[in-house]
Amino acid sequence: AVRAPRPPASPPLPFLRTLPGQQAAAAEAGAALGRPAGLRTVFDALPTLDDDLLACGPDGQILGQTEDGHQLVVPLTPAPRQIVLAHVSNVYAEQLMLRAMACGARVTVITNDAPRWHRLAGVRVATAAEAHDLHVYDRVRPPTDPETASVELTDRIPVNAERRYPLILDQYDDMVAVTRGRDTTLVRAVVDPSERPHLPAAHRTGVLA
Question: How far apart are the first and last CA of the chain?
Fold first, then answer.
């Protein structure tokens, strides 16, 4: 909607929706002594959230979709001294970072190929390591005992990696094997349409390449 100090000289464009004129009521509702009167809206309420794909949840971030249609949710942060080994595509790596930030993490990428990550919206270098930080090591070996949660991006999964890494992500096409200890769960990597504009690798290659 568009507001101006003078009445419009011509009718609004058909794809513009006017404000319902309840800005004052909305401001009062959020005040310390807010009025309980409900606000009318020009938007229809959603009948259900069943088809809404959220990037994060109360127990962590979504890693993918299982065969029975459920979302696999695993917390990557806060997890000091945990290293996640990830053999994944560029798109999936970017998605991990964006969803971690949606859960409150500050993401730092440690890499020898800085231009690769310049276009990833929202990634910023943290100057201090805190519990909710997530450090992503792009083909760089992380410290043996890191102070923050860490993701190590690798070109291959070494033999017996499960002895060192509490969580391993191994991607083949659009399927990701999520290994925790002796348990492995296969999930399908799903890119929500709302995420795609923020994933530069999805524009350079295929959606999950």
Answer: 39
pTM (2 decimals)?
0.60
pLDDT at 84 over 80: yes
Q: Phi, psi at residue 114, to the nearest 5°?
A: -60, -40
Type of residue numbered 181? G
User: Cβ(208)–Cβ(91) under 8 Å?
Assistant: yes
**Closest to 138 in 3D by CA, of 160, 115, 161, 122:** 115
CA distance 129 to 145: 13
Cβ atoms 55, 38 nearer than 8 A: no
Closest Cα to residue 177, out of 190, 167, 187, 163? 187
Write the DSSP assignment of 75-90 as a string of letters. Answer: --SS-TT-EEEEE--H
Q: How far apart are CA 109 and CA 123, in angstroms?
A: 8
**Residue 166: count of CB within 10 angstroms of its CB:** 14
What pLDDT sits at residue 194? Answer: 81
Mean pLDDT to the nearest integer, 69-80:
82
CA 26 from chain center: how many Å? 30
The pLDDT, as a whole number, for residue 126 is 44
Mind spelling out the 3-state secondary structure of 9-59? Answer: CCCCCCCCCCCCCCHHHHHHHCCCCCCCCCCCCCCCCCCCCCCCCCCEECC
Mean pLDDT of the chain: 75
The per-residue pLDDT for range 90-106, each reduced to its tens digit, is 899 988 888 888 777 77
CB 182 within 8 A of CB 162: yes
